[in-house]
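Before we proceed, please read the two lines closing this message. Report back on whether the structure tokens fit the sequence:
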Amino acid sequence: MVCLLFIQFASAQETEKKVNPVYIGGVINATTKGISTIPNMTLGKPALVVDLMVGQGRLSFKPQFRFALEGKPWSFTFWGRYKLLQNEKWRVHIGAHPAVVFQYLKVTENGSSRDIIRGNRYLAGEGGASYSLTKNISVGPYSIYSRAMEKDLVRNTYYLTMWVNFSNIWLSEQYSMSFNPQIFYVKMDKPHGFYVAAGVTLSKKDFPVSVSGFINHKIKTDILVGSNLLWNVSVSYSFYNELFAAKRNR
């Protein structure tokens, strides 16, 4: 009888399957200059960027809200992403989003002028991969295609980059840094160009606030938006929590 109960208990244990935790997190980022790698979406003045995320397993939802520091909206993006592959060496994902980029215009009606906010709508899809060369070095390609809904805007934007990420470079027992250089290509309908960019982040162990810098420089381009060199400095607050990690029977 005891043997029979043990066999039944062992069988029940084997049929239990761990459920991936639901996670929620985000980054609140205050920056000296709102820079976008897509040239016509650069704000060019101090900004607040709020990145949020919620997900479970391979699927995640990552909305982003960007504002000028005086409170005016810059852009809202609503990413959905799915991990096609994730193991010790490779990570491959796809994603899509609707987005609104706000434009501030002055219009004249009946002899008087007034300021208006126009929301320009976009749909986009992305694909990316990363390969871990070592524990702290990874490389990969990333691409995005964006389609503007309004006909008087740049309708088709293509972005393709190759990046390298050097993470957890320890400067002392408490402080570490990461370095992320990349080279990328942008095409906006017909105009196109090549650029280089790099970001560096300084972090303290078990502390949610970090400081980072970013530069973006043109190599060769006929896109007329933006200056030859863009740079900014940012302060970021990060948070992350797992809501549950329950088990269920198969």
Observations:
- The first helix runs from residue 2 to 15.
